[in-house]
Amino acid sequence: MLxxxxxxxxxxxxxxxxxxxMLARLLVRAGADVRVAMTEAATRxxxxxxxxxxxxxxxxxxxxxxxxxxxxxHIELSRDRELIVVAPASxxxxxKVAHGLADDLLSTLCVARRCPLMxxxxxxxxxxxxxxxxxxxxxxxxxxxxxxxxVAGDQACGETGYGRMLEPAQIAAGIEAxxxxxxxxxxxxxxxxGPTEEPIDPVRVLTNASSGKMGYxxxxxxxxxxxxxxxxSGPVSLATPAGVARIDVRTAQEMFEAVKKRAPSSDxxxxxxxxxxxxxxxxxxxxxxxxxxxxxxxxLEENPDILAYVAGMKNGPFCVGFAAxxxxxxxxxxxxxATKNLPLLxxxxxxxxxxxxxxxxxxxxxxGEHPLGTGAKLELARKLVEHxxxxxxxxx
Length: 396
Fold this sequence. Notes:
396 residues; alpha/beta; Rossmann fold; six-stranded parallel sheet
């Protein structure tokens, strides 16, 4: 996948810079042409000699480097590159790129680039959660910058939380996905994600426990594969994947209406949302008061079955269902696929995936079972999208 690909690997100041050495090694071993540029702070953590040995090329860190005859290194060093990857990308470096600041070689390379840019953030949890960093993250995504990570975990400072850089192999997988063939180019993909909330009264709801992470990963993977992606999302606290159109809904009925409107013009429908099966038949317009020990009866009625509706459409999109089971995964998955007449169903055990960044998925189609293994949700989403692409009719 990476053989002959021309990549500029940027390294900003951060203790995770030591991991960039393994990333450089992985990219070179995969056949990529890797050119390295470092900030001055990064050279204090890992020496340029390390990256020169790993990349088999000179390392660049000085904006005024005399090795570039016309002193235009900030332009020339990126002109033949197909992708710039900065790992780690510190809070300071993200702020520079978000606001177009260029006061050293690496930031100037990014501002003067013609090729896509990918950042792998790495910083203390408080820095990551800082409002300014999150604003900058939103700006970067809106500008089309690809963001890989971060994840939660132990940090060099001794604290724990989000801000830990992805492992080199995960970043390399993201780079491979960027260069992967656009198997869904020209396709329109509709994805549902997250839970729905069904009001009981103005302050209480019926819902399902769902973080939305798997659905958002599927939307991103489909977009990476070249599709035009629309994401219909229940209430979650996740950033919209770059290049994806997002529609926010709350209830199952709202999600149903959004899907009905867009399904006829979609080529693929992937139903990942954890839609509440039931809703209150007569939700109260006022807050229901405690009954002082007396039992309270709540009358429920079924919500629309969104996946069954789309699967039953005449000339409808190719349908992919998700089954989150707590037991008997194989049995329940096969039953659901048959009942809803789905060409493809992805199944997992809910206790292994709920709220986590990893998952373990098995695909079911007419050819049998296809275990995708255990891994990051985005990694599995990419495998799922690849499988879907292989099942779609090929244009002659």
